Amino acid sequence: MLASTIGQQLVNGLTLGGMYALIALGYTLVYGIMLMINFAHSEMFMSGAYVGLFTLQLLTNQTIITNAAKVLPFMSGMQSARVFFTGSGFGLFICFVIVFGVAMVAVGFMGVLIERFAYRPLRHAPRLAPLISAIGVSIFLQNAVLLWIDSKAIPFPKVMPVHDIKLGGGVSISTLQILILVTTLVLLACLDTFVARTKIGKAMRATSQDREAAGLMGIDINSVIALAFFIGPALGAVAGVFAGMYYGSVSFSMGFLPGIKSFTAAVIGGIGNLRGAILGGFALGIIESLAAGFLSSGYKDVVAFAILILVLIFRPGGLLGESVVEKV
Amino acid sequence: MGGSKMDIRTSVSTTKMSRTKMALLALAGLAVVFVPVVFQGMGQIFMVRIMAVIGLYVMLALGLNIVVGYAGLLDLGYIAFYAMGAYVGILSAEVISHVWPALAPFSYFISLPIAALAAAATGIALGTPVLRLRGDYLAIVTLGFGEIVRIVITNDAGGLTNGAAGLPRAGQMITSPFGLQWLIDNARFTGFGLDFAFSNNLYWYFIIVLLCCLTVFVVRRLDDSRLGRSWVAMREDEVAAASVGINITVAKLWAFSLGALWGGVAGVTFANFQQFVSPESFTFMESVFIVCIIVLGGMGSIPGAILGAIIIQGVPELIRGLANSGIVKLTAEQASLIGNYRFLVFGLLMVVMMANRPQGFLPSKRRAMELAPEDEKVLAEENQSLYDVEHQTETSDHDL
Amino acid sequence: MSMGKASKYVALIAVLVVMAMMVTACGGSTASTSTGTSKTATVKVAVGAPLTAGAVALGKGMERGAKLAIADVNASAAAKKAGITFEVFSGDDQGDPKTGVNVANQFASDSKVIGVMGHLNSGVSIPASKVYNQANLVMISPASTNPALTQQGLKNVFRVCTIDSVQGPSAADSASKDLSKKVAFVVDDSTPYGVGLADEFAKQFEKDGGKVAGREKTGDKDTDFKALVTKIGAAGPDIVYYGGIYNSGALLSKQLKEGGVKVPLMGGDGLYDGEYIKLAGTAAEGDFATSVGLPLDLLPKGQDFTAEFKKAYPGEEIAAYDAYSYDAATVIMNAAVEVAGKLGADKVSTTAGKKAVIDAVAKTDFEGITGKISFDSKGDTTNKAITLYTVTSGKWGPFKK
């Protein structure tokens, strides 16, 4: 009994951890290159969920397509597309690809815009200035959604049939959980290869080591930073759409807690370190699920925050961070 | 040092005030005392309440200003100390009233130092390990701490806080403070179209004003003290400050715990003014509010904190009041929707301010200069924290 | 600091603020002096509820209920005879204690306000009630269930909703007797409302011979219950009780059923809302909620209310507290009409009049749309009827065995 509960909580924790890892990558990429905490990153996660939800509704919801067609006549053609998207497994797959693609691109560009207008003017300011600016962006985005979209939570439509697959020992994993885990791992592998193997990745690494020197070597610093601000939010958006599907609703305040926790994950793994963020994400997800399952749900957030504080105090470099050289 | 155009002594407040400035100050002082009395006489206790709430936020902003403005440490969990003050204040008042019933009317005044010290002690306990951290890490750690305090209170830790139901518990009351009843019974007059009777709101308004004056006095003295100057040095260039013998950790700890102390004072006062506390008053957004006040007003500036508190706490309530008076034709809902747009506007303002006017609306002179360093190199040196020097490898190479 | 640019800004802002304050104050006071010597008068019923932040769906319902009640009373013969007309004065407390007390002071500053129908959150109602007490204003809450509210010894505080110690046990009795459930898992949302309800449910359920397999806390804004669901599944209950509001309750229900824990979720009146079904979708089928009073359809006046509501607010759903707010506002206005008959309509908004309104409310004994309404010595309602509702084919309806 106990073993199966632990196993089940591990499955929950891995899924949660996958989402944390996706968000944590955004923090770590930006921190690695800019040395700033992008506090508004949690709102990228939230925005991703909303963009995903609206795209999905446009593709699959009959009434919404009909209403949209009243404003934009060409939308009426979507009705036949809807039949395709909801009709077969292949259609559903294409539908998901579109939903995630739109969310990633839209939120990615949002990230680039935010960097351009809120952070770039502060590149030479004292270190707290961009952090305060980022808090401002975060408050702005939350309230923009609250005032202009909806103050209530919006249910996320259930499009994908979810089945449980028995793993043995009383532990089961749902198809949705598998989808989340597989997508996460694929994206993480892609990013890792991209940064480690490609020329642009090399430029990113160079910029994170020494921005000035990289500039002197002919790297376009602004493009590299913009790229980091595209990739990070795009991955956050994927996590946001998954969160909507997994938990069943989206709301304007959904970003805050996952955002802080993913930052914790990035710190656990060593901020600035991509693989560290992934490790930290999964570690935190599992710890949190076990804490909720065996301590108390009421204290699961306390556990995450306490880990954040303890790691920062005792091992600020994180688990995979450089070994800390003490002053002699 | 960044803004080396100014002598360090210029800001020491021994400079003579001009006649106009003195007259203005006197006028402001009279307004602070008599405007609420007039409002009370007109039966406008709403206005008295709003002024008291603004005063409370002035106090909070001045307290946080010590941490953010003077020492240059961003504290995103300031509300934790406010909560600490409120809960310790009410609980200790409860104990006092139980053990020495005769002291019950004085319980606020006795619990005030207790709550303040408890908050300061919490500040020291949290600050000792975390103040070595780099500035942005510190901000996140304090945020986490603020959330932990709120969740622990909500979960009724140790059976002390009564969880979400709040304090005082059912059937218990906060004794009204010394002198209030006497004032309500005796301080009355009619005339000039006013019908004045003393009230709970007015009592707490004056206590808050007194505390604000005390805060301003202490903050100004601090600014001129040895400690204040070591904060300036530290804020401008941590490494240089350390190398001339300033103990950075101790200086930071002083700032952090003094800030916490004021949070505690504001907390216990809020609890008694409100006569009830529950965890829903101590959310992360409240912390952000106070940071907003300082950023808008100007870091390290006393008039700035006052202006910021008026903009952030006063204006939305005034819109509500104007809507009700029929001057502006708005329903309650529209009025508060406008009020709700304030978050949106504040968020945007924080971004715009950081880019265009990082010193705030009413900056302190010294701070304004620091925020405009003359060249890149100086800035890079100033931005380097002691932490980075001690942990060489940390920031220089990232294994992306 | 010289009289530089900065000081000019301050001076300008200070002048603007003072002017705004004066205008506000004068606006309020002219309104109060306009009550002339004539024997007719217009007075205000204040509605304090979260309208733009917090539990907005419920708060808007409170305002709707009060508005309907005001229209009805104004049209009644008794009010016309007494020469008194009522207006609504809404204040948005945003579910925040500090804002709530600001609103309370605003109500108290307007001399034409004769009573307050509000607030929703106990954390707001308790501190606000002290302000009303000093201003001699009667306050009737349609929704605040924290027992502390009526235990402060304030004569002006009443509520038409039952406290947790009635609703929780009643739900436990229904669960163990009507539904023959043996093992319950109890969850709350860390709000005063949810914790009180869940505690009382757990106590009574054990008394009835049931077993409480677990007791957990969550946050009222939580969305992730996956780990909790696994824990609940391992405990093997045949019912899950959730003390809290529909937002999170619906997600818990949804995730429970997705997580293979196919047992019904039960809760209090906080779940009894159309939003719950919207958010939970098909997972809501077979879930339960208790709510105070008898179902509107079974009460003669309730059907009238439903019809009237549909006419006044087409396309909107009756939320949990609409009917209570209607009754609470009616109680205040009936008392005011009674006082107007005795003292004269123009005297209702005087201090003596407001005190008389409080006394009249305390003696209320009337048939409201939610049942008979009268108050005990503390100000709690004597109406202890609780109805169990269940979701069938996407709609809340009374549970029939």
Please write out the topology.
The complex is a heterotrimer of chains A (328), B (400) and C (401).
Chain A: H1 2-34, H2 41-60, H3 62-71, H4 78-87, H5 89-119, H6 128-148, E1 154-155, E2 164-168, E3 171-174, H7 175-197, H8 199-209, H9 211-216, H10 221-247, E4 249-250, H11 256-269, H12 274-294, H13 300-314
Antiparallel strand pairs in A: 1-4, 2-3
Helix pairs in contact in A: 1-7, 1-10, 1-11, 1-12, 2-3, 2-5, 2-10, 2-11, 4-5, 5-10, 7-8, 7-10, 8-10, 11-12, 11-13, 12-13
Chain B: H1 19-41, H2 45-70, H3 79-99, H4 107-130, H5 135-154, H6 180-186, E1 188-191, E2 194-197, H7 200-224, H8 226-236, H9 238-243, H10 248-274, H11 284-297, H12 302-325, H13 332-356, H14 365-370, H15 376-383, H16 386-390, H17 393-396
Antiparallel strand pairs in B: 1-2
Helix pairs in contact in B: 1-2, 1-7, 2-7, 2-10, 2-11, 2-12, 3-4, 3-5, 3-10, 4-10, 7-8, 7-10, 8-10, 11-12, 12-13
Chain C: H1 5-33, E1 41-49, H2 56-75, H3 77-82, E2 84-92, H4 97-109, E3 113-118, H5 122-134, E4 138-141, E5 157-159, H6 164-178, E6 183-188, H7 192-207, E7 211-217, H8 226-235, E8 239-243, H9 246-258, E9 265-267, H10 274-280, E10 288-292, H11 300-312, H12 322-343, H13 351-362, E11 365-368, E12 371-374, E13 386-392, E14 395-398
Parallel strand pairs in C: 1-2, 1-3, 3-4, 4-5, 6-7, 6-8, 8-9, 9-10
Antiparallel strand pairs in C: 10-13, 11-12, 13-14
What does this structure look like?
The complex is a heterotrimer of chains A (328), B (400) and C (401). Chain A has 328 residues and is mainly alpha-helical. Chain A has helices at residues 2-34, 41-60, 62-71, 78-87, 89-119, 128-148, 175-197, 199-209, 211-216, 221-247, 256-269, 274-294, 300-314, and strands at 154-155, 164-168, 171-174, 249-250. Chain A has one domain: ABC transporter involved in vitamin B12 uptake, BtuC. In chain A, the strands form 2 sheets. In chain A, strands 1-4 form a two-stranded antiparallel sheet. A two-stranded antiparallel ribbon of chain A has the order 2-3. Chain B is mainly alpha-helical and 400 residues long. Chain B has a domain at 36-282: ABC transporter involved in vitamin B12 uptake, BtuC, CATH 1.10.3470. Chain B has helices at residues 19-41, 45-70, 79-99, 107-130, 135-154, 180-186, 200-224, 226-236, 238-243, 248-274, 284-297, 302-325, 332-356, 365-370, 376-383, 386-390, 393-396; strands at residues 188-191, 194-197. Chain B has a two-stranded antiparallel ribbon. The longest helix of chain B has 27 residues, at 248-274. Chain B starts with 18 loop residues before the first helix and ends with a helix. Residues 1-14 and 393-398 of chain B have low confidence and may be disordered. Chain C has a 7-stranded mixed beta sheet, sandwiched between helices. A 5-stranded parallel beta sheet of chain C has the order 2-1-3-4-5, with helices on both faces. Chain C has a two-stranded antiparallel sheet with strand order 11-12. In chain C, α6 crosses α7. Chain C has 401 residues and is an alpha/beta fold. Chain C has helices at 5-33, 56-75, 77-82, 97-109, 122-134, 164-178, 192-207, 226-235, 246-258, 274-280, 300-312, 322-343, 351-362; strands spanning 41-49, 84-92, 113-118, 138-141, 157-159, 183-188, 211-217, 239-243, 265-267, 288-292, 365-368, 371-374, 386-392, 395-398. Residues 28-37 of chain C have low confidence and may be disordered. The longest helix of chain C has 29 residues, at 5-33. The chains are: A mainly alpha (328), B mainly alpha (400), C alpha/beta (401). Chains in contact: A-B, A-C, B-C. Chains B and C meet through α1, α2, α12 and α13 of B and α1, β2, α4, α5 and α7 of C.
